[in-house]
Amino acid sequence: MASLISIRGLRKTYRMGDEDVHALDGVDLDFEKGEFVAILGPSGSGKSTLMHILGFMDRPSAGSILFEGHEVAALDPDRRAWYRSNRVGFVFQAFNLLPRLTVLENVALPLIYREDSDPARNAEAARAALERVGMGHRLDHRPGQLSGGERQRVAVARAIVGRPAIIFADEPTGNLDVRNVDRVLDLLGSLISEGITVVLVTHDLSVAERAHRVIAMRAGRVQEDRRR
Amino acid sequence: MRIVDRLRPAVINGLRELRANKVRSLLSMSGIILGVASLVAMVTVVQGMVGNFRQFVDAMGGIEKITVTREPLPREQEHLAELSEGLTMRDVTRIRTTVPLIANISPEARVGFEKLANDDRETLTYVTGVAADYLPVAKRWVDPGHGRFISDLDVHNMTDVVVLGAAVVADLFPPNEDPVGRVIKLRGRAYTVVGVLNNIEGSGFQISSARGRGPGGSGSSWRYRNYGAYIPVTTALTKFLGSDRLSGLGLRVGNPQQLQDAVDQTERALLQSHKGLRDFGITTNEQTLEDFRRTESAFKLSLGGVAGISLFVGGIGIMNVMLASINERIREIGVRKAVGARGSDLFLQFLAEAAVVSFVGGVLGLVVSLGIVTLMNLVLAAAVPTSAASMLDPQIMAMGLGFSVVIGLVAGVYPAMRAARLDPIEALRHE
Fold this sequence. Notes:
With 228 residues, chain A is α/β, with parallel strands linked by helices. Chain A is built from 7 helices and 10 strands.
């Protein structure tokens, strides 16, 4: 069976002054449907760059990416936006909820940029996603009225509302207290039962240990790819 | 996705931002508010001026009127004064036969203020000797059922008949009494009233005392024209003035486009019959009209300049605020892009926001312009009672509103482009 994502020879080079910086220096990886993966590495290891490229926010300098069987390494910005809106979800360390929107509107945000956007259907999908993360009782609150753990659960709801194939969680527990760390990680881990691939990006080994597969990165290369 | 579907959330978003930043939005809108207000007020006031002036020019006989007046001889002809015969009925015939461009000739012999009496009722009014052509030249008429005007036969036979202004009738006769056919006294002589001139304000005999209008309302200023009594010009010359010299001629050109030709031909005809003596003057309303046009364009230019500058400054204000707003919301832009917004989605969002701000500014500007126009009407009514009140025209208001939205859109393009081009990764990292 073909992998969800299959990357070969992925490189990303930045020009910093007179020097070329190789953020990704030849990465080969496969991600399967419904996997719970952690990408572990110190800052500068290239893990964020890898996440941005796999999350259709950036383009590689070289290499190939097969996403659901399609070559997507060189898509134009609008096509990448389509993938972000339809196939990918993001969870950020800083939650990144829009303060002026209600919880429900925040969660529905990815849907309004879709071609078949319909306000009533969007709201229904957002409500369902919020129920799924246990935040169905806070639909009309503003993000500012929620605790950190609650905000991150809303952010997870926003990531899954569009029924994506894969979710990238960038240090999702970095701003949370211990009790909420477990809760959010459990929530993310439970998503694989719905066929969603979850990719945790972290420098925290204890967080990475929660995943079923840990990819350790260093200096733009995969140092270790370990399944448990 | 249809453009309408994309615009709806953008507009809602714009309103939300407006509500969240009330003071800042109001400040940024101030330029647009002033611009729209001055634009609308300007157009309204200038239009009111034009309306007033049309009325005024009409009262003077309109653009097609030529006035010939008696003038002293110029210095180089002063020694020939004894040869000057002045304007006479011979000139009327002369012009009628030699200047076909002139459609109507109204000889006028001003008698002056005279006492008119009907039994014990008296009134003082200006008496003028005229002929049948007075009506088309002065743009007056006699309403049906109110008798007739002076006829050619009256002029020919030098009859003792009089046509009264509506206000004179009100002074001389009890209400509801038909004056036509009645005899009144003028300098002790009996004159038969044969007609009543049209009432300038409304119709009928009663001077509707500015019904439903405030003091200084439109029309009231023309009421003096309801005074006056008119007798055959020959009667005036023979029985009152004892001379054959007219006070002047009123001419009406058939085609206003041939005004200048008519003036030239009239001048030539008169010079010829006056043996070359320049004892007359010819004036048209064109100069007045030209003066007015100049005033109007000066007004338009200065007020339009003010409006243009405020709208320009208003546009810069909006652009400035949009740039500031985008700077504050870089992270929001990053989030929106991360969840799937295209550059064009954000472009549309911020453009719509600019349009919403300027539209709301435009609406507030209309409210302000309403205040300005009301104030101007009050001031004008106090200073110039003849002026008609300016009214806000929905078309002008729509134009002002349209202007403000266009300004907002133009001012919003650059900030919106900045937002659309932001790199999502950079934007998300922004603190």
